[in-house]
Write a structure and sequence with these properties.
Layout: H1 11-18, E1 36-41, H2 51-58, H3 61-64, E2 67-72, H4 79-84, E3 90-92, H5 95-103, E4 109-113, E5 120-125, E6 141-144, H6 148-160, E7 168-171, H7 176-182, E8 187-191, H8 195-201, E9 206-210, E10 223-226, H9 228-233, H10 235-254, H11 256-266, H12 268-271, H13 275-285, H14 303-315
Parallel strand pairs: 1-2, 1-3, 6-7, 6-8
Antiparallel strand pairs: 3-10, 4-10, 5-8, 5-9
Length: about 350
């Protein structure tokens, strides 16, 4: 679920997103408090990573908590920048993005982990009999995304399986999938719970290599972020929002098919006709280790994964501070996430 260039949010939408939550005021007619407005920014068109938020909206969990949640559509401004700047109270943001963004000076913090494990994978066409492991990608063409992080990941996987880590990258962004199908590139990166399922449905399945099975540290790939500023100003609102979202993702894990229907019905323009993709995606995400994991509070942080993935970022020179200087010593990753607002 990568980010193509599309039109930015209008200035008016950004301005409305900038308003912080105010204390609920009673209505003259009923004497009951008005719901508290909360804004949530998507990182892409609606998809199964967002299911818990839409379930909470559709099943009334937000309403029960006294919240009026506005889901902001994906825009060209990255979610971490929207949240850090106060244009959104919460938004989608995975572990790696938080580690990169907060180190670079953004005011972002992870408050909920949507997936407990990595969902990305390196893929080739299923009929490539000459490729049995990432080591066989030595010297081949990578349909990439122009990211130093992704290049380091690919190099690590090739080296882990016995190669030297040499390959050629052609930056194609989302065009990488078409290039892979046509044979223009040899391999690319995919999301096992979305693009890879879509490829299977369309009869062009991939041969895949999970990152964490080939030398990469595991990571809580998808999550929800807020800012220290918002959490300090509105801790009780944050607690209500995170608890409602937690209920939403737990419902999706327990009832993936019903959650799929709710997600599609809430987004007919973007997901209408994609019922099979959404259902199969949610059935995959409902398995142990993704939306939920045995013995783990739903949505909680795994400190070990933050430490190990952070070490990878430091060792490969991926992290930079707010002045653009490469960070050579890991910060205290415990400052980058919190479980304070989870319902335990």
């Amino acid at each position: 679920m990568r980010r193509p260039s599309i039109a930015a949010l209008t200035a008016a939408l950004l301005l409305t997103g900038c308003t912080s939550a105010a204390a609920p005021q009673p209505t003259p007619e009923s004497g009951r408090a008005e719901p508290t407005r909360v804004t949530f920014a998507l990182d892409w068109a609606p998809n199964t990573n967002h299911t818990g938020v839409y379930v909470a909206q559709e099943l009334g969990y937000f309403e029960e908590a006294g919240l009026d949640v506005e889901i902001l559509p994906y825009a060209s401004t990255p979610v971490p920048e929207l949240v850090s700047g106060g244009a959104a109270d919460f938004g989608i943001g995975g572990q790696g993005g938080v580690q990169l963004g907060r180190t670079a000076g953004l005011d972002i913090v992870s408050v909920y982990r949507v997936t407990q494990s990595e969902v990305g994978e390196l893929v080739v066409l299923a009929d490539r009999d000459d490729i049995d492991s990432p080591a066989d990608l030595e010297g081949k063409i990578f349909g990439g995304f122009g990211s130093p992080l992704y290049r380091a990941m690919v190099r690590t996987m090739i080296e882990h399986d016995g190669g030297r880590g040499d390959f050629t990258e052609v930056v194609l962004d989302t065009g990488a999938y078409e290039a892979l199908s046509s044979g223009t590139v040899d391999f690319t990166l995919s999301v096992s719970t979305w693009e890879s399922i879509q490829a299977e449905i369309e009869g062009r399945p991939y041969k895949s290599f999970q990152y964490q099975d080939h030398g990469m540290p595991d990571v809580q790939a998808v999550g929800i972020i807020s800012s220290d500023a918002y959490l300090t100003a509105e801790p009780e609102v944050a607690r209500k929002f995170v608890a409602a979202v937690q209920r939403g993702y737990q419902y999706a894990a327990d009832h993936p098919r019903e959650a799929a229907t709710l997600l599609v019905d809430a987004n007919p323009d973007t997901l209408g006709g994609a019922e099979e993709l959404v259902t199969k995606s949610l059935e995959t995400l409902a398995k142990d280790g993704l939306f939920v994991a045995d013995g783990v509070v739903t949505g909680s942080a795994d400190p070990e994964r933050w430490e190990e993935y952070g070490a990878f970022l430091v060792e490969n020179g991926i992290l930079v501070d707010e002045s653009g200087n490469t960070v050579t010593q890991a910060p205290d990753w415990a400052d980058y996430y919190t479980d304070e607002f989870l319902d335990r």
